[in-house]
Amino acid sequence: MYIHQVAAYLPAEIITNEHFTRLNGLSHEWITERTGIQTRRKAAPGENTNTMALEATRRVLAAAPAFPAAEVDLIVGATYTPHDTIYTLAHAVQRELNVGEIPVVSISSACSSLLNAIEIVEGYFAMGKARRALVVVSEHNTAYNNEQDTMAGHLWGDGAAALLLTPERLSENDLDVRTVLTGGVANVGKADVAVTLKPVEKGIVMPFGKDVFINACQYMARVTQQVLERNNLSVEDVTYLIPHQANLRITKNVLQQLGLPEDRAVSNIQDLGNTGCAGAAIALADTWALLKPGNQIVITVFGGGYSYGAMLLAR
């Protein structure tokens, strides 16, 4: 399985930490020290999870002439911040492409959904039910976020990304998907209450951030090691580590556990905040032009609920 192309969309509006200083008294220094976040993006009025997904889709197809929209035969969308839970972002993308009578799936496993979506594609490819897949991840966190919440209100940003996947190589620049490994750990710690989004109540809240931190660090490092071991690789073979963009301290902790220098990690959280399941895909899009033959890339993620995963890519 190969990733042929990836592209991202970010809203234009930039929200600085000073916004929260004015709103609830949290200082730029306090936020940066605890999260690494300096700015984040906010969707404009009229933008939502679906519109951002559509723009990311347009961009990825524009960058991939060898992958015509008419050939898309599987769409997998992922989000935990849907604009509509019935007419999902995946259906919106299908309507945009005007490709009918194909499998269209929308999923949510919190911030690890990117890898679950790719695993679904892997299954369709293995069964011979698809050959041109489009994965779209999009989060409109600010639609649900309570900015007055001093525990988590400053964490969230909006954005989307789209990936094109095939079971055969279309270009020398394609990324070979060597291994995808995911799992759910709803039975550990405070997985049931640590991060929740209840639209009828208060939106996104994170009352047990320490529990999230501990488990994210543990599982992201562990699953990265498992993926490397399955491919007879060591951490020294990793060119880039792309972690879930939740907290810069989590990234640094995972790097320390793995024994990787900080310059191996790709991070966009300082500029974008936590963009949920879109964060790692946006980071991959940012890194795409830097990738060279022989590079080994690991994406490792963790989501509330809890869920985790890692994927090894090679060029």
UniProtKB/TrEMBL annotation:
GO terms for molecular function: 3-oxoacyl-[acyl-carrier-protein] synthase activity. It comes from the Bacteria. Pfam families: ACP_syn_III, ACP_syn_III_C. Residues 228-313 form the Beta-ketoacyl-[acyl-carrier-protein] synthase III C-terminal domain. Signal peptide: none annotated. GO terms for biological process: fatty acid biosynthetic process; secondary metabolite biosynthetic process. InterPro entries: ACP_syn_III_C, ACP_syn_III_N, Thiolase-like. Keywords: Acyltransferase, Transferase. Residues 107-168 form the Beta-ketoacyl-[acyl-carrier-protein] synthase III N-terminal domain. Gene3D superfamilies: 3.40.47.10. SUPFAM superfamilies: Thiolase-like. This is 3-oxoacyl-[acyl-carrier-protein] synthase-3. It comes from Hymenobacter mucosus.
